[in-house]
Amino acid sequence: MIKQYIIVRKDLGISKGQMIAMGAHASMGIFFAMLQETGFDEFRLGTAEGWDWDDAVLPWIKGKFTKVVLGAPNAHELEQVYEAATRAGLPCSLIDDENIGMAAVAIGPVKSEDVAHITGHLKLL
Predict the structure, then answer these.
(1) Which residues contact 33 (CB under 8 A, 6 or more apart)?
(2) Who contacts 50 (Cβ-Cβ below 8 Å, separation ≥6)?
(3) What are φ and ψ of residue 116, in 5° steps?
């Protein structure tokens, strides 16, 4: 199944609303990064390097926009997840808030099997 994975730090002591906002920023950050890569004047689907457009992104956009929200215990774990996703060449976004530091990561949309080794140890938020 194709999903977007959103990972939020659990140790920040912020409200659930703030956690949701950070996760939403990370989710959208992936697409804004693609816009920067391809140019804001032309949103060209399929041109961003490393994106599995035919088998993951387009089916996700045309489908249910499934998201899974997971919790990371601390900044170190969040950074490890982000670095692993980056090394794997998966579309990802890190939100580093000026007031609270690293707050959230989004990965995908990707096939579940492509991210299981990165997020499988995290629990649902």
Answers:
(1) 91, 93
(2) 89, 90, 91
(3) -55, -40
Q: How far apart are CA 85 and CA 64, in angstroms?
A: 23
User: Going by C-beta distance under 8 Å and a sequence separation of 6 or more, which residues neighbour residue 57?
Assistant: 45, 51, 91, 109
DSSP line for 37-105? HH-TT---TT-STT--IIIIIHHHHHTT--EEEEEESSHHHHHHHHHHHHHTT--EEEEEETTTEEEEE
Is 0.90 surpassed by the pTM of this model?
Answer: no
pLDDT per residue over 95-124, tens digit each? 998 989 999 999 999 999 999 999 999 999
